[in-house]
Amino acid sequence: MLILGIDTSCDDTAASVVEDGVKIISNIVSSQTDIHTKYGGIVPELASRRHIEMIWPVVDEALKSAGIKFEGLSAIAVCHGPGLIGSLLVGCSFAKALCFSKNIPLVAVNHLEGHVFSAFLEDPRPEFPFISLVASGGHTSLYRVDGFGRYTELGRTRDDAAGEAYDKVSKLLGLGYPGGPVIDKLASEGNPGAIDFPRAYLPESFDFSFSGVKTAVLHYVRAAISSQPSALSDIAASFQACVIDVLVRKTEWAIRKEGIRRVTLSGGVSANSELRRRMKKMGEERDVEIFIPSVSLCTDNAAMIAAAGFHYFNAGRLAGMDLNPKAYLPL
Q1: 164 with 195, same domain?
Q2: Are residues 201 and 155 part of one domain?
Q3: How far is Cα 331 from Cα 265, in angstroms, rounded to an integer?
Q4: Quick one: 111 and 138 in the same domain?
Q5: 131 and 275 belong to one structural domain
Q6: Is 176 helix (H, G, I), strand (E, B) or coil?
């Protein structure tokens, strides 16, 4: 069963062909990083315009790389939210046009659901139930996953997502955009204990909050102007340690409360080398299975949309031509 996945939720135009929800046949991603870097962040209007230019070339390349034509597809799965509404409109409109003209079934996939199912695209694959931590530029959430369509939100961010905090702190330190990779690299050269930035553990819940550490970095940098400032690498390492401490600790709490010893980590922030190391270390210490996709499957991609879309199609849950994207779409 071959599913063509399409994702235009943010600034990456992506298309992928996946077999039976687990085997990647092709996976094409067109990045817009060069376009948005000079603005210090994503410009929604520019993102949607670029999607319009790239959607057909990317889908065409995904089909050619897979060696199939539209007639060989079982269905087309498209991300319909959450995300930038202008970007989502491009993907949804294109997918509906293809399905209508080629008489192919259409399924709609939640972007967060795609991240959850990215763990099934590589061996070993988790068994249900498991705890899923989704950490990205727009979302930081903990879920209990008991099966396809059976999700319980345990906690989510109350303000900034982890990836958003990375981008804002990077901009504050003059390191550029995107912030995740540059802070990850710089932090490896610094002392994570140099500065004691606050950790918002919110012990009464599994929710996250990263606006406080972002503000703490701002105040530290302002105060350092009139004194001897720490090295940028120490600031980056201390900030990163703060964020990762919270992510790992909250996941540990969820493991204990739910009594589940399987954890998946996904989303753009899961590409962070220190987070991957710390999460694996926690798994070894707590005798917990940790499943982390390859870096290429952590950031936005269409293979994860196709993987989740397979289950929708298999269950007969098809979308109609009246499908509309939604900027806010909880899982």
Answers
A1: yes
A2: yes
A3: 16
A4: no
A5: yes
A6: coil
Distance CA 16, CA 25 (A): 7
Which pLDDT tens digit goes with each residue over 122-164? 999 999 999 999 999 999 999 999 999 999 999 999 999 999 9
**pLDDT at position 320:** 97
What the block records as the tokens of 113 is: 């659901």
Task: Count structural domains, the chain.
Answer: 2
Cβ-proximal residues to 309 (8 Å cutoff; 6+ apart), any chain: 3, 5, 21, 75, 76, 77, 78, 107, 109
| pTM of the predicted protein model | 0.95
29: which 2 tokens?
A: 């991603």
CA distance 153 to 282: 22
Q: Hey, is 219 helix, strand or coil? A: helix
Residues in the chain, pLDDT under 70:
225-229
Question: What angle (nearest 5°) sits at the alpha carbon of residue 268, between those of residues 115 and 17?
Answer: 50
Task: Determine the 3-state secondary structure of 16 from DSSP.
Answer: strand
Here the tokens at position 309 are 């879309």
Domain identity same for 59 and 86? yes
Confirm whether 183 is domain-assigned. Answer: yes
Q: Which domain holds residue 185?
A: 127-292
Which ranges in 198-266 belong to alpha helices (H)? Answer: 211-224, 232-258
Neighbours of 121 (CB within 10 A): 23
